[in-house]
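Thanks for the sequence, V.! I ran Peptidylprolyl isomerase right away. Repeating your input here for the record:
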Amino acid sequence: MLKKIITEPLIHFLFIAIVFFIVFDRLNSDATTANSIRISEARIEQIRQSFLTRWNREPQAKELENATQHFAINEMYLREARALSLDVGDKVINRRLRQKMDFLIEDLVSAKEPTVEELQSYYQQNIENYQTMPMYSLQQVHISIDRTPEQLEKKIEQQLQLINQGLPPQSEVTLLPAQIKQKYSVQIDRLFGDGFSEKLSNYPLSTWSGPVFSTLGQHFVFIEQKQPVTNKPFESVKQNVLKDWQYQNLQEAKASFEQKLQQNYTIERVNANSEQESE
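Predicted structure:
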Protein backbone atom coordinates (compact mmCIF):
# COMPACT_ATOMS: atom_id res chain seq x y z
CA MET A 1 0.00 0.00 0.00
CA LEU A 2 2.77 2.42 1.02
CA LYS A 3 4.75 1.54 -2.10
CA LYS A 4 1.69 2.27 -4.22
CA ILE A 5 1.22 5.67 -2.57
CA ILE A 6 4.90 6.58 -3.03
CA THR A 7 4.78 5.72 -6.73
CA GLU A 8 1.59 7.72 -7.26
CA PRO A 9 2.36 10.55 -9.81
CA LEU A 10 0.16 13.02 -7.94
CA ILE A 11 2.20 12.49 -4.75
CA HIS A 12 5.33 13.32 -6.75
CA PHE A 13 3.63 16.42 -8.08
CA LEU A 14 2.50 17.66 -4.66
CA PHE A 15 5.93 16.92 -3.14
CA ILE A 16 7.64 18.99 -5.83
CA ALA A 17 5.10 21.78 -5.27
CA ILE A 18 5.82 21.84 -1.52
CA VAL A 19 9.58 21.96 -2.15
CA PHE A 20 9.04 24.74 -4.66
CA PHE A 21 7.05 26.80 -2.16
CA ILE A 22 9.69 26.32 0.56
CA VAL A 23 12.54 27.35 -1.74
CA PHE A 24 10.57 30.31 -3.04
CA ASP A 25 9.76 31.41 0.50
CA ARG A 26 13.41 31.19 1.56
CA LEU A 27 14.63 33.14 -1.46
CA ASN A 28 11.96 35.80 -1.10
CA SER A 29 11.67 36.04 2.68
CA ASP A 30 10.46 39.64 2.75
CA ALA A 31 8.08 41.08 5.30
CA THR A 32 7.93 38.49 8.08
CA THR A 33 6.39 40.66 10.84
CA ALA A 34 3.36 42.97 10.92
CA ASN A 35 5.26 46.30 11.15
CA SER A 36 8.58 45.30 9.63
CA ILE A 37 9.42 45.25 5.94
CA ARG A 38 12.33 42.88 5.45
CA ILE A 39 13.91 42.99 1.99
CA SER A 40 16.08 40.04 1.02
CA GLU A 41 19.19 40.16 -1.17
CA ALA A 42 17.30 38.17 -3.77
CA ARG A 43 14.60 40.86 -3.85
CA ILE A 44 17.20 43.65 -4.22
CA GLU A 45 18.76 41.72 -7.10
CA GLN A 46 15.30 41.43 -8.66
CA ILE A 47 14.84 45.22 -8.31
CA ARG A 48 18.26 45.80 -9.90
CA GLN A 49 17.42 43.50 -12.83
CA SER A 50 14.10 45.29 -13.31
CA PHE A 51 15.87 48.66 -13.45
CA LEU A 52 18.46 47.27 -15.90
CA THR A 53 15.72 45.90 -18.18
CA ARG A 54 13.76 49.15 -18.13
CA TRP A 55 16.62 51.65 -18.57
CA ASN A 56 19.19 49.41 -20.29
CA ARG A 57 21.91 50.32 -17.77
CA GLU A 58 23.00 49.50 -14.24
CA PRO A 59 21.35 51.64 -11.53
CA GLN A 60 23.54 53.95 -9.51
CA ALA A 61 23.69 53.32 -5.76
CA LYS A 62 21.23 56.12 -5.00
CA GLU A 63 18.85 54.93 -7.73
CA LEU A 64 18.90 51.38 -6.40
CA GLU A 65 18.27 52.71 -2.89
CA ASN A 66 15.30 54.77 -4.14
CA ALA A 67 13.87 51.81 -6.06
CA THR A 68 14.20 49.60 -2.98
CA GLN A 69 12.51 52.27 -0.85
CA HIS A 70 9.71 52.48 -3.41
CA PHE A 71 9.26 48.70 -3.19
CA ALA A 72 9.04 48.92 0.64
CA ILE A 73 6.43 51.70 0.52
CA ASN A 74 4.42 49.71 -1.98
CA GLU A 75 4.50 46.76 0.45
CA MET A 76 3.18 49.08 3.19
CA TYR A 77 0.27 50.09 0.96
CA LEU A 78 -0.51 46.44 0.28
CA ARG A 79 -0.49 45.58 4.00
CA GLU A 80 -2.83 48.42 4.82
CA ALA A 81 -5.14 47.36 1.98
CA ARG A 82 -5.17 43.74 3.23
CA ALA A 83 -5.80 44.98 6.78
CA LEU A 84 -8.92 46.69 5.42
CA SER A 85 -9.85 43.45 3.59
CA LEU A 86 -9.79 45.31 0.28
CA ASP A 87 -8.49 42.15 -1.40
CA VAL A 88 -11.50 40.05 -0.32
CA GLY A 89 -13.96 39.38 -3.14
CA ASP A 90 -11.91 41.34 -5.67
CA LYS A 91 -12.41 39.63 -9.05
CA VAL A 92 -9.18 41.00 -10.50
CA ILE A 93 -7.13 39.68 -7.56
CA ASN A 94 -8.97 36.35 -7.62
CA ARG A 95 -8.33 35.97 -11.34
CA ARG A 96 -4.64 36.77 -10.86
CA LEU A 97 -4.31 34.21 -8.05
CA ARG A 98 -5.89 31.57 -10.27
CA GLN A 99 -3.44 32.48 -13.05
CA LYS A 100 -0.54 32.10 -10.64
CA MET A 101 -1.69 28.60 -9.70
CA ASP A 102 -2.01 27.71 -13.39
CA PHE A 103 1.50 29.05 -14.08
CA LEU A 104 2.87 27.11 -11.11
CA ILE A 105 1.43 23.84 -12.41
CA GLU A 106 2.69 24.59 -15.93
CA ASP A 107 6.22 25.28 -14.63
CA LEU A 108 6.26 22.05 -12.65
CA VAL A 109 5.00 19.97 -15.56
CA SER A 110 7.28 21.58 -18.17
CA ALA A 111 10.29 20.86 -15.94
CA LYS A 112 9.90 17.17 -16.74
CA GLU A 113 11.84 16.16 -19.87
CA PRO A 114 10.59 13.06 -21.72
CA THR A 115 12.96 10.37 -22.92
CA VAL A 116 13.23 9.66 -26.65
CA GLU A 117 11.44 6.35 -26.02
CA GLU A 118 8.52 8.16 -24.34
CA LEU A 119 8.23 10.60 -27.25
CA GLN A 120 8.36 7.82 -29.85
CA SER A 121 5.70 5.90 -27.94
CA TYR A 122 3.47 9.01 -27.83
CA TYR A 123 4.10 9.54 -31.56
CA GLN A 124 2.98 5.98 -32.38
CA GLN A 125 -0.09 6.16 -30.14
CA ASN A 126 -1.21 9.41 -31.80
CA ILE A 127 0.06 8.76 -35.32
CA GLU A 128 -3.12 10.21 -36.89
CA ASN A 129 -1.92 13.65 -35.76
CA TYR A 130 1.37 13.29 -37.67
CA GLN A 131 0.17 12.30 -41.11
CA THR A 132 0.07 14.11 -44.41
CA MET A 133 -3.36 15.08 -45.72
CA PRO A 134 -4.64 13.24 -48.81
CA MET A 135 -4.34 15.21 -52.05
CA TYR A 136 -6.54 14.95 -55.15
CA SER A 137 -6.67 16.04 -58.75
CA LEU A 138 -10.15 15.56 -60.22
CA GLN A 139 -12.91 16.67 -62.53
CA GLN A 140 -16.41 17.21 -61.21
CA VAL A 141 -19.84 17.58 -62.79
CA HIS A 142 -22.46 19.41 -60.77
CA ILE A 143 -26.16 18.48 -60.71
CA SER A 144 -28.42 21.03 -59.08
CA ILE A 145 -30.84 19.77 -56.42
CA ASP A 146 -33.14 22.73 -57.06
CA ARG A 147 -35.85 20.47 -58.56
CA THR A 148 -38.38 17.91 -57.39
CA PRO A 149 -37.10 14.52 -56.14
CA GLU A 150 -38.56 12.84 -59.23
CA GLN A 151 -36.82 15.31 -61.57
CA LEU A 152 -33.55 14.90 -59.67
CA GLU A 153 -33.75 11.09 -59.87
CA LYS A 154 -34.43 11.29 -63.60
CA LYS A 155 -31.51 13.70 -64.14
CA ILE A 156 -29.11 11.46 -62.25
CA GLU A 157 -30.31 8.39 -64.17
CA GLN A 158 -29.55 10.20 -67.44
CA GLN A 159 -25.99 10.90 -66.30
CA LEU A 160 -25.47 7.28 -65.21
CA GLN A 161 -26.59 6.11 -68.65
CA LEU A 162 -24.01 8.41 -70.28
CA ILE A 163 -21.30 7.00 -68.02
CA ASN A 164 -22.32 3.43 -68.86
CA GLN A 165 -21.99 4.35 -72.55
CA GLY A 166 -18.43 5.55 -71.94
CA LEU A 167 -19.40 9.22 -72.18
CA PRO A 168 -18.82 11.96 -69.59
CA PRO A 169 -21.83 13.23 -67.61
CA GLN A 170 -23.20 16.65 -68.50
CA SER A 171 -22.70 19.45 -66.03
CA GLU A 172 -25.13 22.24 -65.30
CA VAL A 173 -24.28 25.91 -64.98
CA THR A 174 -22.36 26.43 -61.75
CA LEU A 175 -19.68 28.62 -60.21
CA LEU A 176 -17.89 25.55 -58.87
CA PRO A 177 -14.64 24.62 -60.68
CA ALA A 178 -14.91 21.77 -63.17
CA GLN A 179 -11.22 20.89 -62.76
CA ILE A 180 -9.33 20.65 -59.48
CA LYS A 181 -5.57 20.18 -59.50
CA GLN A 182 -3.56 18.88 -56.52
CA LYS A 183 -5.72 20.13 -53.70
CA TYR A 184 -5.51 18.86 -50.14
CA SER A 185 -8.62 17.33 -48.62
CA VAL A 186 -9.15 20.36 -46.39
CA GLN A 187 -9.11 22.65 -49.45
CA ILE A 188 -11.67 20.46 -51.24
CA ASP A 189 -13.90 20.51 -48.16
CA ARG A 190 -13.79 24.30 -48.19
CA LEU A 191 -15.23 24.22 -51.71
CA PHE A 192 -17.87 21.49 -51.34
CA GLY A 193 -18.49 21.30 -47.59
CA ASP A 194 -17.15 19.26 -44.68
CA GLY A 195 -16.79 15.54 -45.30
CA PHE A 196 -16.87 15.74 -49.13
CA SER A 197 -13.21 14.71 -49.55
CA GLU A 198 -13.69 11.72 -47.25
CA LYS A 199 -16.27 10.31 -49.68
CA LEU A 200 -13.72 10.54 -52.51
CA SER A 201 -11.33 8.14 -50.79
CA ASN A 202 -13.43 5.10 -51.80
CA TYR A 203 -13.68 5.93 -55.51
CA PRO A 204 -11.31 4.43 -58.14
CA LEU A 205 -8.97 6.39 -60.38
CA SER A 206 -9.66 7.32 -64.02
CA THR A 207 -13.38 6.62 -64.11
CA TRP A 208 -16.55 8.62 -63.53
CA SER A 209 -18.08 7.87 -60.10
CA GLY A 210 -21.02 9.13 -58.11
CA PRO A 211 -23.27 10.79 -57.52
CA VAL A 212 -21.58 12.35 -54.44
CA PHE A 213 -23.81 14.51 -52.28
CA SER A 214 -22.67 17.89 -50.97
CA THR A 215 -24.44 20.88 -49.46
CA LEU A 216 -24.29 22.43 -52.96
CA GLY A 217 -25.89 19.58 -54.87
CA GLN A 218 -25.00 16.21 -56.41
CA HIS A 219 -21.67 15.64 -58.14
CA PHE A 220 -20.10 13.10 -60.46
CA VAL A 221 -16.33 12.94 -60.04
CA PHE A 222 -13.45 11.69 -62.17
CA ILE A 223 -10.40 11.25 -59.93
CA GLU A 224 -7.23 11.71 -61.95
CA GLN A 225 -4.71 11.50 -59.14
CA LYS A 226 -4.90 10.54 -55.48
CA GLN A 227 -2.05 10.95 -52.99
CA PRO A 228 -2.92 8.84 -49.94
CA VAL A 229 -2.25 9.60 -46.29
CA THR A 230 1.32 8.90 -45.17
CA ASN A 231 3.00 9.04 -41.78
CA LYS A 232 5.46 11.91 -41.34
CA PRO A 233 8.90 10.72 -40.12
CA PHE A 234 9.34 11.05 -36.36
CA GLU A 235 12.41 13.29 -36.66
CA SER A 236 10.58 15.77 -38.92
CA VAL A 237 7.78 16.30 -36.36
CA LYS A 238 9.75 15.74 -33.15
CA GLN A 239 9.21 19.31 -31.86
CA ASN A 240 5.46 19.10 -32.47
CA VAL A 241 5.34 15.72 -30.74
CA LEU A 242 7.14 17.25 -27.74
CA LYS A 243 4.66 20.14 -27.53
CA ASP A 244 1.70 17.77 -27.77
CA TRP A 245 3.22 15.46 -25.13
CA GLN A 246 3.76 18.44 -22.79
CA TYR A 247 0.21 19.68 -23.39
CA GLN A 248 -1.26 16.27 -22.60
CA ASN A 249 0.85 16.02 -19.44
CA LEU A 250 -0.33 19.46 -18.37
CA GLN A 251 -3.99 18.54 -18.86
CA GLU A 252 -3.51 15.30 -16.91
CA ALA A 253 -1.70 17.15 -14.08
CA LYS A 254 -4.49 19.75 -13.87
CA ALA A 255 -7.17 17.07 -13.86
CA SER A 256 -5.32 15.14 -11.14
CA PHE A 257 -4.83 18.30 -9.06
CA GLU A 258 -8.49 19.30 -9.38
CA GLN A 259 -9.57 15.80 -8.42
CA LYS A 260 -7.40 16.02 -5.29
CA LEU A 261 -8.87 19.45 -4.48
CA GLN A 262 -12.40 18.10 -4.74
CA GLN A 263 -11.49 15.30 -2.34
CA ASN A 264 -10.22 17.83 0.19
CA TYR A 265 -13.10 20.32 -0.11
CA THR A 266 -16.84 20.07 0.40
CA ILE A 267 -19.12 22.03 -1.91
CA GLU A 268 -22.25 23.30 -0.18
CA ARG A 269 -25.02 24.71 -2.34
CA VAL A 270 -27.01 27.35 -0.42
CA ASN A 271 -30.29 28.68 -1.81
CA ALA A 272 -31.50 32.26 -1.37
CA ASN A 273 -34.03 31.35 1.39
CA SER A 274 -31.32 29.75 3.55
CA GLU A 275 -29.12 32.84 3.19
CA GLN A 276 -31.97 35.12 4.33
CA GLU A 277 -32.70 32.89 7.34
CA SER A 278 -29.07 32.90 8.42
CA GLU A 279 -29.03 36.71 8.26
